[in-house]
Amino acid sequence: MRFATPLVEGELIRRYKRFLADVRLPDGEVITAHTPNTGSMLGCAEPGSRVWIRDSSNPKRKYPWSWEISETAGGVKVGINTLLSNHLVREEIETGAIPELGGYDTIRSEVSYGSGRSRIDLLLEKEDRPNCYVEVK
User: Fold this and answer.
1) 36, 62 contact by CB (below 8 A)
2) Whole-structure pTM value
């Protein structure tokens, strides 16, 4: 996945108040970043771990930096921004990285189905194929 602005690597000092994290940048500066994940992030929020953050360049934000990726103790990089999951899966389908979901002409997001009260994350459509409903977790 490509981010609109480059990610900056840092070291996690601590995560607190569910939405905030202190990160040490390569030059030694410590900044407070917004954490877009309210879950426990077990194994992804250990002090001293490598993290990647991005600068929103939005002067109206109280915390212009956002935490996007964390590296676990086992060296696995984990996207922690839950708002990007659907976008990432859609991008992977469009580029053919998930062959089982390839060959559809149209991809629609957040489509109502059934009684109209439920929504599916992605709907893949092609005239001569059954619709494919994709729920991203």
Assistant:
1) no
2) 0.78
